[in-house]
Design a protein that fits this description.
Length: 94
């Protein structure tokens, strides 16, 4: 029971962290959509998604659960960006 609780807690914490990180990447991608740096944010989002999927797959041992959680977390972060709003970023030159 303790091992299962620890596994669930780790997956939940990783999922919350991934949702927040993905929200930032989505926000910066939308903010800089006309600038070349948006590519870096989108690539970072892909890398974070792959890393999250691998870590959840390693923790749970089930690829289907990892994929479903990944899709749900992406949907939640996009929903937050759509309904709450996204972070406005700007490049400021000195």
């Amino acid at each position: 029971m303790k091992n299962q609780l620890s596994t669930v807690t780790e997956v939940v914490v990783r999922s919350i962290f991934y949702i927040i990180t993905n929200y930032v990447f989505v926000s910066m991608g939308l903010s800089f959509h006309t600038h070349w740096i948006a590519i870096l944010f989108l690539l970072s989002m892909v890398w974070a998604t792959i890393d999250y999927g691998k870590s959840v797959n390693k923790i749970t041992g089930k690829k289907v659960i990892a994929e479903i959680l990944c899709i749900c977390c992406i949907a939640i972060s996009i929903a937050i960006a759509y309904f709450v709003g996204y972070i406005q970023g700007a490049i400021i030159s000195f």
